[in-house]
Amino acid sequence: MNIRRVFYGVLAGGAIAVGSLAVPGAQAADAPVAAPASSQAVSADNWEYVGDFFWQSDCHAAGAAGTKWTKYKCINGSAFPGDDYELWVVYK
């Protein structure tokens, strides 16, 4: 009798755990964004990937030294923070 209770308890707990993991995925759907009401369209920046850098300081140095782009940003390009950085730019 006790083994059955343990088995059903584990089974119910597993179902609850799996259900709680599935709910955030269902809530992650993005709502459609409406277009701006004004007659002038907002121009979006076209960010383009340039390369990977191991150090964040190297990424910023390369971005600041670039003459072909107007803006740059260095973002963490890895699952591990501080592992590598991606340089993204907006060309002139």
Task: Give the key terms.
39% helix, single chain, alpha+beta
Structure description:
- This protein is of the alpha+beta class and 92 residues long.
- The protein has a domain at 48-91.
- The chain contains two helices and three strands.
- Strands 1-3-2 form a three-stranded antiparallel β-sheet, with helices on one face.
- Strand 2 and strand 3 form a beta hairpin.
Low-confidence stretches: 23-29
Radius of gyration: 24 Å
Structural class: alpha+beta
What is the N-to-C order of secondary-structure elements (H for helix, E for strand)?
HEHEE
Q: What's the mean pLDDT score?
A: 73
Biggest sheet, in brief? 3 strands, antiparallel
Strand content: 15-25%
Q: Tell how many strands the DSSP assignment holds.
A: 3
Taking strands numbered 1, 2, ... along the chain, how are they ordered across the largest sheet? Answer: 1-3-2
The termini sit apart by 75 Å
The amount of helix comes to 25-40%
- Which outline best applies? elongated
Number of helices: 2
Chain-wise SSE layout:
Blueprint: H1 2-27, E1 48-53, H2 56-65, E2 69-76, E3 85-91
Antiparallel strand pairs: 1-3, 2-3
